[in-house]
From TrEMBL:
This is Ribosome biogenesis protein WDR12 homolog. SUPFAM superfamilies: WD40 repeat-like. Residues 242-251 have a biased composition (Polar residues). GO terms for biological process: maturation of 5.8S rRNA from tricistronic rRNA transcript (SSU-rRNA, 5.8S rRNA, LSU-rRNA); maturation of LSU-rRNA from tricistronic rRNA transcript (SSU-rRNA, 5.8S rRNA, LSU-rRNA). It comes from Papilio xuthus.
């Protein structure tokens, strides 16, 4: 870029959807080589004049042509092929603050899965155990029961006195557990058997009445999450070493050609699955058929669905995170995000902000992304010393990840409930 280009004057207007920070609509003249820091100074100066009740400076991010500004305005416009002669509209929004590292929970083996519910964390481990922790880092229980690595854990319900959760393992089973919080004791009430190979992933439905598991046998099984015995369970006596009553699947969804790596509920009847066969599938669980199929060009390791933006975010056997819009008639890949230096293993949407998500990878990195900034993550959450196998953002205030360094790390998000 030449010096002349860098020093062009621009007419800009500042707009925001956050009413409390709105400034007058008049245009301002600025140099085209300014970046976010100078824009921040300018908007805060305008706020100081027009909104005396805002006492301290606010950190803003700036959207130019729908994408977060990460370079100078001149470079940004040049890349987008937009003239510097028209009045430019710049949208500003309060910056999501950097998550702060909190606890580090030590395990005896690789941590393959984590799930948070309120102030409780479940973790699943390669030494076949499940653990319950407080979000403050206190270890409540180590739970044996599975006979191979635990690959998925998920809370089903928690009323403060009694909680239930589900787990799945490479021992080909899923288990339903009840935890008496006051006594701090756990019982396995149901063992679910229906897969022929290791179970890789688990997801509890929105209504907590059933759950799905995906396996290396290429199948997805749907199960009742009821803690009591049901009519369809054979009344045979259970033989040791089976724990709890044995349960068979309500139905089995067949269609993937390789291991199922993730299952996620879209609504009460629709399930999203990802697989090593390079396919994402949306299933009608009542009819047992496929509603939609989306082809990728790599094995999918994980996928997550956001009801806030109706999009799918995926982790693949490459360095890229991709967002798919299943409603799109043209290109279904909406955006590609590139910053990881190794395979991406896990992805999770924010449950309250439709433009934020987490990714975790074999490069030991956990990254917090804003969908309008595809090349630069908002933050790198550092601390893990080996591959990161799972991440979770079920509690909006806590970003949680588990790794091959035998730890779960917790980061606290300020402004967790602020709207975008």
């Amino acid at each position: 870029m030449t010096t002349d280009q860098a020093e062009v004057q621009l007419q800009v207007r500042f707009v925001t959807k956050q009413e409390q920070y709105a400034v007058p609509d008049s245009p301002y003249a600025i140099q085209s080589n300014v970046q976010s820091a100078e824009l921040n100074t300018l908007v805060n100066a305008i706020l100081k004049e027009t909104k005396p009740l805002i006492l301290k400076a606010v950190e803003f991010d700036f959207l130019v042509c729908g994408e977060l500004l990460c370079t100078s305005i001149a470079e940004h416009l040049q890349e987008k092929g937009i003239s510097t002669e028209d009045t430019l509209e710049i949208e500003y929004l309060e910056r999501f603050p950097a998550p702060k590292p909190q606890e580090c929970l030590m395990h005896d083996d690789w941590v393959s899965s984590v799930h948070t519910h309120g102030s409780w964390i479940l973790s699943g481990c390669y030494d076949n155990s499940i653990h319950i922790w407080t979000t403050k880092g206190q270890h409540k229980l180590a739970i044996p029961g599975h006979t191979s690595p635990v690959k998925g854990v998920s809370w089903v319900s928690n009323d403060g006195e009694q909680a239930s959760f589900a787990s799945c393992s490479h021992d080909q089973s899923a288990m339903l557990w009840v935890w008496n919080v006051a006594r701090n004791s756990v019982d396995c009430v149901v063992t679910c058997r229906g897969h022929d190979k290791g179970v890789e992933c688990i997801a509890v439905a929105v209504d907590a009445k059933h759950f799905a598991t995906g396996s290396w046998d290429n199948n997805i099984c749907l199960w009742s999450a009821s803690l009591t015995d049901e009519d369809n369970v054979p009344a045979k006596k259970r033989s040791k070493p089976e724990q709890g009553n044995s349960r068979t699947p309500k139905s089995t969804l067949k269609g993937h050609r390789e291991a199922v790596s993730a299952v996620k509920w879209v609504d009460f009847n629709t399930l999203l699955s990802s697989s090593w066969d390079h396919l994402l599938k949306l299933w009608d669980c009542e009819l047992g058929g496929i509603k939609q199929e989306i082809a990728g060009n790599k094995a999918f390791f994980d996928a997550d669905w956001s009801p806030l933006n109706n999009s799918i975010v995926t982790a693949s056997a490459d360095r890229h995170v991709r967002i798919y819009d299943p409603r799109s008639t043209e290109s279904i890949v909406k955006t590609t995000f590139t910053s990881h230096t190794g395979w991406v293993q896990s992805v999770r949407w924010s449950t309250i902000r439709d433009t934020l998500f987490l990714s975790a990878g074999y490069d030991g990195q956990v990254k917090l992304w804003e969908t309008r900034s595809p090349r630069t993550p908002l933050y790198d959450l550092t601390g893990h010393e080996d591959k990161v196998l799972c991440c979770d953002w079920s509690n909006p205030a806590l970003l949680v990840s588990g790794s091959c360094d035998n730890t779960v790390r917790i980061f606290k998000a300020k402004h967790a409930t602020a709207s975008a």
